[in-house]
Amino acid sequence: MLLGAAGLVAGASPASAASSDLCAQTGYNAGFRGDGLVTAVAVALAESSCNPSATNVQNNTPPSRDRGLWQINDYWHPEVDDACAYDAQCNANAAFEISAGGTNWQPWSTYTAGAHQRHMDEARAAVDRLGHHEPGPGPLTYPAESGRVVSARSADGRLEVFAAGADGIHHAWQNTVNGSWSAWEALGGPGGAELAIGPNADGRLELFAINNDTFYHRYQLQPSGGWSGWESFGGGGKDIAVGANGDGRLEVFASGPVGVFHRYQSAPNGGWSEWESAGGGPADSRIEMEKSLDGRLEVFALNGDAFRHLYQTAVSGGWSAWEDFGGGGRDLTVDHNQDGRLEVFASGPVGVFHKYQTGASGWSGWEPTGGPADSQLTSERSPDGRVEVFAVNATTAQHIWQSGVNAPYGQWGTFGGGGTEIAAAANADGRIEVFGTSSAGVFHKWQTGFTTWSEWAWVNGTAGPAVN
């Protein structure tokens, strides 16, 4: 991984009670609490066997070193010098900051691949010995971007990608974690659809597809396994978004000509409620969903005339009334800063604007960033926590990124030619992978370093579906 690049340190032996106690104590001192502390200890056990002197250089791209208890990488996190990385408490403090207080372990490949799970019992025992296994937050599951192409990681860390053509949905997946891709397979389903994907509480991905006439979903039969057939999920509409509640229940929002509706699982991994009105919302809007640092889902909906915002009033709870969020536009993307503050980008006829949380609930005004007019948008976080935004219209693709963690953005840079849709996802090792579509098919491009990228290429060397 890119914080602890190879995951498990080569030759690491099972940790002793004393070493896991070290991770529990330093993790607690750093600020991890409750279930978040248990997860932090389990990740450190998987990374270093809780050895503060552990070093790994195997399989790191670019060549670099993973250091200390939580294997902080010297390339992706040069702000953590060796003196800090090999000091147990300083390493724990850095892990607490990088993981946004234990809510985001996605940069650690041992977490995304589930390698920490076999250390959970040992981690709980260490936290219990410490006397601090009180209730507390666990890691948050952030929603994936929705659109005509979507990508998410299976429970074993492999990316899967779905693209919506006129003839239905097409699917490809990584053969190995961070590795090569399968050939495309045709799945049928709604033609010309908008897609959304989310993980069930047990790790099974669930895919949703809507067009003007139909709404279907399909789901993995087991984590990282095969998929069900298509099942009806309701009538047609414009766009959809899906996210996981704090208790693990998926919740789906869909827009149509009379506003926005939602439907939610009655229990984690379980059946679904009936459709309910979300209290209005912009008709035929583009929808995206994000998660606040405290675990509440937030929904953003944009059409050509209006931009509105809806949020949970409690974790896994009810919803606010819609609030005005700005004027209309073409498309939007929402992401979270390293410190948990949400950031929203929206495109329109004069370029791309953004708006960001200034605190727990306050927002800045809209600020212009430049960028392509009337573009499709997506965003993802680099391994060091910086937000990167990608935009494509019919003539150009461009990207913009934060100059530092939680920091302002630089200037837009060229990212390729024009297209019809764009989506970004993070590999298990933290590298961003971007999928771009056109009438010719589906391309992808991936990070090779902080600011370096591969060339655009077909997924598995084949075009895949045309996305018009």
Automatic annotation (TrEMBL):
Q: Which residues form the Transglycosylase SLT domain?
A: 25-110
What are the boundaries of the signal sequence? 1-17
Which Pfam families has this protein been placed in? DUF8189, SLT_3
Q: What is this protein called?
A: Transglycosylase SLT domain-containing protein
| InterPro entries xref list | Lysozyme-like_dom_sf (IPR023346), PLL-like_beta-prop (IPR058502), SLT_3 (IPR043992)
CDD domains named among the record's database cross-references = PLL_lectin
Q: Which UniProt keywords apply?
A: Signal
**What is the species listed in this Swiss-Prot or TrEMBL entry?**
Streptomyces flavotricini
According to the entry, every stretch annotated as the PLL-like beta propeller domain falls at: 144-462
The reply on keyword Membrane is no
Origin superkingdom: Bacteria
